[in-house]
Design brief:
The structure is a homodimer of 205-residue chains. Chain A is mostly helical and 205 residues long. Chain A starts with 14 loop residues before the first helix and ends in a 9-residue tail after the last helix. In chain A, helix 1 crosses helix 6, helix 7 packs across helix 9 and helix 8 packs antiparallel against helix 9. The longest helix of chain A has 20 residues. Chain B binds a DNA duplex (30 and 30 nucleotides) through helix 1 and helix 3.
DNA sequence: TGCGAAACGCGACGCGAGTCGCATTAAGAT
DNA sequence: ATCTTAATGCGACTCGCGTCGCGTTTCGCA
């Protein structure tokens, strides 16, 4: 949402829009094939047909390209489970995260994007926005649990989702320890348990 | 400890050992001052007095330097709390993590090291060994809780520690969302709750 | 104490990322 | 339809990372 609205510059329509689309597509393809360390501005320029100088002028370098790709990816919807049970929903969410990042076809792209985004301020900002949007979407499962009376009112749904998925991301991107389906389930169950105990409601002081 | 023992190569003692020490010191100093993106082999060479070509020959580049520094840091002991209560111990651990990484003086070094290690296989291996050692040490608080009867026998102590600290690392290095002391406490309490419920014991199927 | 070899110092080179000034295209307004 | 100018295309240039060949030091050993 709001891709064209944030345009204080005099002339953002027309050719520029097409260039942007081409560049985003090329960046995603390159980062998927080569990984982040193999991602070069020259390669994106060659694949997209956009001149190298233009890429540096508009995006400043590899960082900006990744941030642009991340922003474009943030808007895409995410399938949310609805099993009628909080623990069940959280298990499906963690299982989905587990499946995506360990899949040899799907995994490299988001993995490279996340790793790349940590290296620059622009990328970090885009990544943060990306996860904030994801959490906001996924918080729905907690809100439904509140309506069912499964969770206390005032529970921070996004925080519940974070608690469930954090152990997965922690292993994937920080400690580097192996991740299996068993761990994913355990993380979901632990988050559901803590949420039911009211740990993620503000009055639980 | 054990710096000279792991030497299968023909001639690792003497001058090489001194060079290694100088390089590790210089690498840590550089990465603290400039961050990872500002870390160059030339700077380490200039600061350590070791020639650039030697650094490339022995460590292969920036990745190897960071891995060496990480390995050297992994052996250092970590102060463990002992409050007589699992939740209290975990709170102090998460508070310690929170304090270290948000401190403007202490934070940059481990932050840069972790970010750097994610970019190469050698760094990732060293980082994984680092965290495995940390978890092994910190698991003591869970083992003491088992002895007190606070946790079921067979509880995976390292997993309890991971569950407590994961939300912190997740925010710091993945999502980039802000981290505060309140969140640190909540993560510790949630982990303690799940551990008491037996979620981290193998027979809890 | 003297010898062979491994490790290091040294300087020059190749190569690719990133920048700059100018020409060209096309978007938006009249 | 035409004009203004923002946006892009274009190629040459600079600069720093990483490498290579050779001379020198010093470690390990007899």
């Amino acid at each position: 949402m709001s891709e064209e609205s944030r345009t204080p510059s005099p002339r953002p329509g027309g050719r520029s829009a097409r260039v942007r689309t081409e560049v985003v597509t090329a960046t995603l393809a390159e980062v998927t094939e080569k990984g982040y360390d193999g991602l070069t501005v020259d390669a994106v320029a060659a694949r997209s047909g956009v001149h190298k100088a233009t890429l540096y002028r508009r995006w400043g370098g590899v960082d900006g390209l990744v941030a642009e790709a991340l922003t474009a990816s943030a808007d895409q919807p995410w399938p949310l489970p609805d099993t009628g049970d909080l623990a069940g929903d959280l298990r499906l969410i963690t299982r989905e995260v587990f499946a995506v990042f360990t899949d040899p076809d799907l995994g490299p792209t988001p993995t490279a994007l996340i790793a790349a985004a940590q290296r620059s301020d622009t990328g970090a900002t885009a990544l943060r926005a990306f996860f904030t949007a994801r959490h906001r979407q996924a918080a729905t499962v907690a809100e439904r649990a509140i309506e069912r009376g499964e969770l206390p009112a005032g529970t921070d749904g996004a925080e519940v989702v974070r608690a469930a998925t954090a152990p997965l991301y922690y292993r994937l991107f920080v400690s580097g320890e192996p991740l299996d389906a068993r761990t994913a389930e355990r993380a979901a169950d632990a988050a559901a348990l803590a949420a039911r105990a009211g740990l993620f409601a503000p009055e639980a002081d």
